[in-house]
Design goal:
- This protein is mainly β.
- Helix content is about 10%, strand content about 40%.
- The chain has one domain (about 15-90).
- It has one helix at about 80-90, and strands spanning about 15-20, 25-35, 40-45, 50-55, 65, 70-75.
- The chain is globular, with a radius of gyration of 15 Å.
- The mean pLDDT is about 85.
């Protein structure tokens, strides 16, 4: 099971830095699920935590979402996120050998 915040046992939660557009403040948030078309993050801890879905912007240069009425932005392109995913979870590409 994946926990929304903190380190539990042998698992290390991935964290990313997002920016609150209104205040330009940066926050480190825990990644709950990461795909090139959607990144789900958890803000806060425990009973006060809030989940937020970040989706690519029109130009594909960032991800944006809304949490508690505030817009948050992850300033990495869709291609950069896909490269991160590929690096963390390498899959065998090309023909399989017997």
């Amino acid at each position: 099971m994946r926990y929304p915040a903190g380190n539990h046992g042998d698992t290390m939660d991935e964290k990313i830095t997002v920016r609150v557009t209104e205040t330009r403040q940066t926050l480190d948030v825990v990644v709950f699920n990461k795909r090139a078309d959607r990144i789900e993050v958890v803000l806060g801890e425990g009973v006060h935590s809030v989940r937020c879905a970040l989706t690519p912007t029109r130009n594909g240069l960032a991800y944006a979402g809304s949490a508690l009425g505030r817009e948050i932005v992850y300033e990495r392109s869709r291609d950069q996120v896909q490269a991160d995913i590929d690096r963390l979870n390498p899959t065998v590409r090309g023909p399989r050998r017997r």
